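TA notes, week 10

Several of you asked for a full example with nothing omitted. So below is the full record: structure tokens for the whole chain, then the designed sequence directly under it. When grading your own attempts, check the secondary structure regions first.
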């Protein structure tokens, strides 16, 4: 059974993983020629960004007030990666790329949640 902090993180991960792309108010930054030379964003980077936003918004203890253990952080990242893999399959590569750009540009929970407000 998952601990309360882990359940909170998994719940948030599931909400985020329901993403269907960015809405018109939250568009990814325009591409530049130098971006073509960059490596694509990995799912691990997406999950790390989600976790960082959650840490900034809720603090190191999350919404429960109990600090996460390293094991709980690792479980969250693993669960998030699995959820993102499922989203890639569900959305297809093009829509998933738009979603990833939106998530990576997000700096707050509000902007992160906007990434999955519309289809």
């Amino acid at each position: 059974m998952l601990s309360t902090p882990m359940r909170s993180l998994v719940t948030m991960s599931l909400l985020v993983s329901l993403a269907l792309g960015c809405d018109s108010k939250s568009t990814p930054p325009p591409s530049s020629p130098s971006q073509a030379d960059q490596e694509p964003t990995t799912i691990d980077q997406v999950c790390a960004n989600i976790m960082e936003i959650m840490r900034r918004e809720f603090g190191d203890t999350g919404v429960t007030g109990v600090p996460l253990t390293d094991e709980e952080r690792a479980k969250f990242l693993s669960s998030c990666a699995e959820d993102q893999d499922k989203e890639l399959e569900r959305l297809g590569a093009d829509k998933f790329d738009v979603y990833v750009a939106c998530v990576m540009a997000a700096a707050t929970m509000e902007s992160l949640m906007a990434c999955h407000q519309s289809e």
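The helical segments are 4-17, 33-36, 43-58, 70-91, 93-105, 109-114. Use that as a sanity check on your answer.
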